[in-house]
Predict the 3D structure of the following.
Amino acid sequence: VGGIDYVIKPFQQEEVLARITTHLSLYKLRKTLEEKNVHLQEEILERKRAETALIKSEKKYRTLVEAADDAILLLDMDFNHLFENTAYHTGLGYEKENVPHGLSQIHPDDVPVVKEKTTELLKTGKIESEYRIRHREGYWVHRLAKSVVIHDDDKKPEAILSIIRDISDRKQMEEELRAAKESAESANRAKSEFLASMSHDIRTPMNAILGFTEILEREIRDERRKRYLSSIKASGKLLLGLINDILDLSKIEAGKLKPEYSPVHLRTLFKEIEQIFSHKIFEKGLEFRIETGSD
């Protein structure tokens, strides 16, 4: 440094040292700038990568939001719409730009509930509510909304996110099930009333048949005819038992049937079974034999 001046000019030590110092300072400054420039370029590249990743992520999640069957709605704390996905307006039959907002679109009977739930949301930060909203064609759409308050880094309320599902089909199914249940209950009441009203009319003829059978048993002496009467009597008792069981259905349905425990004489029961089926046994040429122990 300063070699030419040193050859052609008288040697000035202070001047040479000053020039050397200046050149060294400039060299250090250039190196520092180069290093900072490299670092800055790396930061710019990293930021571009982050921005690209953010754009891809936002695009991915926007695609997911737009493809969702449920309506997704983002509001500010004054309930102004910040974002709504396609399902929000298509579910009501509107284009995105033409969707009407406000309580005027809510069913009048549901407006108090919506106001109450809104107050609850601002207090608790989370709600679930059902309401009806007017479709573009005039009918009411049942919706289930789940809403949460979103907070910023300072934990201050920043926005409201709502996920809204169309539950009209479910409500219609519930209404059909309710109507079917009421119809079944009505038919069941009619059946029970019929059985109750016919109880006396059904039992009376059977009691008369059994009564006359007992009278004839005392009057007839022929053993063969007495066996016939015994079969009639046993069959009549069985039929009367079946009638009583049928009439007890109303008690079963009402939960009022109480079992009765009583002793049963097995020999008598088997004998009645034999008398009931004796005619068929005779017609088919079969043998029906009952054997019981002595005790």
